[in-house]
């Protein structure tokens, strides 16, 4: 599969720690050129190198040697000639003289042109650092240009670089200590539109610094709503008093995308595809970003990066964005979500002074999770569990397995179990409206769902309690619920939990919150296929109506939901990301088919979401019209389907 990164709004960045010899400019130049070619073959559009990488960071008083300074200038000119061919944009570190002062600079070179030089602002002069001995701060420059081999080059900490082929790509540059300062220049650069922040660094290694550096880079990328690339000097720097590790990183909006292996003496480079389109979207939706202003005015210079076609993405794309891959992280998230659900329900119980809850218990995943939340909320408030009225309401499609699990669970948990068959009531309803029982259509199914809701509401009146909704976030997205049936309740505890996570939550409860026979029942619930059980079982008494055969795999729909609602990606991008993630499980035709189903259902079923009952938000996505998602119930889906049709 060929991927046009530019079309996807992505940009491939390489951070490089090349081999180095202190003060050997010729050797360092060759290493930069070699790694640039290597990165270019891997599809990189920009290569970032460490601080003072042409000379070496640890030259000390040799920085004052005219010969070294002259060789650095010649090397920059050679890199400009080198970059005129099909080469990534190069951002290299160099000591450069201007106005009788020496500056520690980052130089951006693209398509045969030295586009500009950015001097370092914050010069550390403590402990092992003596930079003020050799360099002047950017604040001490006295002109906007410097003379480099007879050419005037834009010069200053007020430079930003705008890609002429990528409207979303604007580059800001800072150097090492600039990031560690109280107010890093990158913050103002981001407010001025920089989506990719670069840092040329020479950060020596000491105990604990690796973790702090990771946190610093990741948190700055989050604070700036940007991608942040950090290239650090390696162990080939002088070890007279310090050791450098070459710990280079790429982060995006708080997430670490890639990092190099430390303490390697050979060339080290890693690449990542940063999602510029996502970053622009995050900024548009962030009122704090919109209301802030940069601290200074910037000169914006244009440059021309290559836009390669690549074979695969170099960024993590989680197949299950709601479910962490790591077992420990997944367990922590389940614990947090369960606590949020429980606290939300407990608050509602305290406010209404209710001592009774009514819940329809089918023996499926959603109602089981909702019941467990009720149990823990009652325990939290010191209420008697008999106040939880669990109603199992067998109908035409109820199987022995789900009914047995529902009844066992209610009894084992100490709830008040009530069994109310709906068969006779639904048949009477069919007779009242003139509907043949053999006509197993939408009316046949929804009549059962609404009969159950009527029973729950009336029982709630009897016991002066609240009806607890069991439907989940994925069902709300697809509209896979009966309007004024299971769609309605007095408090919906699962409304923020996607289907792919519900199973993990029930499984986590089985292992962490409950034990013994209760855990065994919960395990069997987890192993039961997802079904509304509104059509009769098969000849063997097993579930014959499988939800995912009808609406599609929840694995895909939750993937689509995350990228549409959380990231606001267009159909073309969602489909390509799905092809990248599910190539081993679904064909491109299947992915396109289910994505079309998702869009049609998501748009056509908004009217159900426009009148949702209350329920707690637990993750980054919620569909409540009072919270995260506002959408007209009669919005047209054609624009999105048309883009899919052209693919």
- The CATH class designation of the largest domain is Alpha Beta
- The poorly predicted ranges are none
Q: What's the CATH architecture name of the largest domain?
A: 3-Layer(aba) Sandwich
Overall 3D shape: elongated
Q: Which class of secondary structure composition applies to the elements?
A: alpha/beta
Structure description:
This protein is 40% helix and 18% strand. It is built from 22 helices and 22 strands. The strands form five sheets. It has a seven-stranded mixed sheet with strand order 14-13-12-11-10-9-16. Strands 6-5-4-3-2-15 form a six-stranded mixed sheet. A five-stranded parallel sheet has the order 20-19-18-21-22. A hairpin with a 2-residue loop joins strand 5 and strand 6. Helix 12 crosses helix 13 and helix 18 packs across helix 20. The longest helix has 26 residues. The model has no long low-confidence stretch (mean pLDDT 94).
Compact summary:
The chain has 647 residues and is of the alpha/beta class.
List keywords for this structure.
single chain, 647 residues, alpha/beta, Nitrilase/N-carbamoyl-D-aminoacid amidohydrolase, Rossmann fold, 2 domains, 7-stranded mixed β-sheet, 6-stranded mixed β-sheet, 22 helices, elongated
Please outline the helices and strands.
Blueprint: E1 3-4, E2 10-17, H1 25-41, E3 46-48, H2 66-83, E4 89-98, E5 101-110, E6 113-119, H3 131-134, E7 145-148, E8 151-154, E9 159-163, E10 170-175, H4 177-180, H5 185-191, E11 196-201, H6 209-223, E12 227-232, E13 249-252, E14 255-259, E15 268-275, H7 276-285, H8 287-291, E16 299-303, E17 309-310, H9 327-352, E18 357-360, H10 365-381, E19 388-392, H11 400-412, E20 416-419, H12 423-433, H13 442-463, E21 466-469, H14 473-478, E22 491-492, H15 499-512, H16 516-526, H17 547-551, H18 554-566, H19 571-582, H20 588-604, H21 606-609, H22 638-645
Parallel strand pairs: 2-3, 3-4, 9-16, 10-11, 11-12, 18-19, 18-21, 19-20, 21-22
Antiparallel strand pairs: 1-17, 2-15, 4-5, 5-6, 7-8, 9-10, 12-13, 13-14
């Amino acid at each position: 599969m060929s991927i046009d990164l530019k079309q996807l709004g992505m940009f491939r960045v390489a951070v490089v720690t090349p081999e180095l010899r202190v003060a050997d400019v010729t050797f360092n130049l060759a290493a930069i050129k070699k790694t640039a070619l290597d990165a270019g073959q891997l599809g990189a559009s920009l290569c970032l190198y460490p601080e003072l990488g042409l000379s070496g960071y640890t030259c000390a008083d040799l920085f004052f040697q005219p010969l070294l300074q002259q060789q650095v200038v010649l090397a920059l000119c050679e890199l400009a000639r080198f970059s005129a061919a099909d080469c990534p944009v190069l951002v290299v570190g160099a000591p450069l003289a201007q106005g009788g002062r020496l500056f520690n600079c980052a130089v951006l070179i693209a398509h045969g042109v030295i586009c500009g030089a950015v001097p370092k602002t914050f010069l550390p002069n403590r402990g092992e650092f003596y930079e003020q001995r050799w360099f002047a701060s950017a604040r001490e420059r006295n002109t906007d240009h410097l003379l480099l081999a007879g050419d005037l080059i834009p010069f200053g900490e007020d430079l930003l670089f705008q890609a002429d082929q990528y409207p979303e790509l604007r580059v800001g540059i800072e150097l090492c200590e600039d990031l560690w300062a109280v107010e890093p220049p990158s913050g103002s650069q981001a407010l001025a539109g920089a989506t990719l922040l670069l840092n040329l660094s020479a950060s020596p290694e000491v105990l604990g610094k690796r973790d702090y550096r990771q946190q610093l880079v990741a948190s700055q990328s989050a604070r700036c709503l940007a991608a942040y690339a950090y290239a650090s000097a390696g162990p080939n720097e002088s070890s007279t008093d310090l050791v450098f590790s070459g710990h280079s990183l790429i982060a995006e909006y708080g997430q670490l995308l890639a990092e190099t292996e430390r303490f390697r003496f050979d060339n080290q480079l890693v690449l990542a595809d940063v999602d510029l389109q996502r970053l622009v979207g995050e900024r548009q939706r962030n009122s704090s970003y919109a209301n802030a202003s940069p601290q200074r005015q910037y000169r914006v210079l244009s440059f021309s990066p290559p836009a390669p076609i690549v074979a695969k993405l170099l960024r993590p794309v989680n197949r299950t964005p709601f479910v962490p891959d790591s077992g420990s992280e997944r367990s922590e998230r389940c614990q947090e979500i369960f606590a949020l659900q429980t606290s939300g329900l407990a608050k509602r119980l305290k406010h209404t002074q209710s001592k009774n809850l009514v819940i329809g218990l089918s023996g499926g995943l959603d109602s089981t999770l909702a019941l467990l939340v009720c149990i823990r909320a009652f325990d939290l408030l010191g209420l008697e569990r008999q106040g939880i009225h669990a109603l199992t309401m067998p109908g035409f499609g109820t199987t022995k397995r789900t009914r047995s699990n529902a009844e066992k669970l209610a009894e084992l948990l100490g709830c008040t179990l009530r069994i109310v068959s709906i068969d006779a009531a639904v048949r009477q309803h069919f007779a009242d409206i003139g509907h043949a029982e053999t006509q197993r259509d939408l009316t046949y199914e929804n009549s059962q769902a609404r009969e159950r809701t009527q029973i729950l509401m009336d029982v709630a009146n009897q016991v002066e309690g609240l009806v607890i909704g069991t439907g989940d976030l994925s069902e709300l997205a697809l509209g896979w619920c009966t309007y004024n049936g299971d769609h309605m309740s007095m408090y919906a505890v699962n409304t923020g939990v996607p289907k792919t996570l519900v199973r993990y939550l029930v499984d986590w409860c089985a292992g962490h919150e409950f034990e013994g026979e209760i855990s065994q029942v919960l395990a069997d619930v987890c192993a039961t296929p997802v079904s509304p059980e509104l059509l009769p079982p098969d000849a063997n008494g097993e579930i014959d109506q499988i939800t995912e055969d009808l609406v599609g795999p929840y694995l895909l729909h939750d993937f689509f939901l995350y990228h549409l609602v959380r990231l606001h990606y267009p159909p073309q991008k969602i489909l390509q990301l799905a092809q990248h993630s599910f190539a081993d499980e679904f064909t491109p035709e299947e992915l396109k088919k289910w994505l079309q189903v998702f869009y049609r259902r998501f748009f056509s079923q908004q009217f159900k979401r426009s009148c949702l009952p209350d329920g707690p938000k637990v993750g980054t996505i919620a569909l409540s019209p009072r919270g995260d998602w506002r959408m007209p119930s009669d919005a047209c889906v054609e624009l999105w389907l048309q883009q899919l049709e052209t693919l």
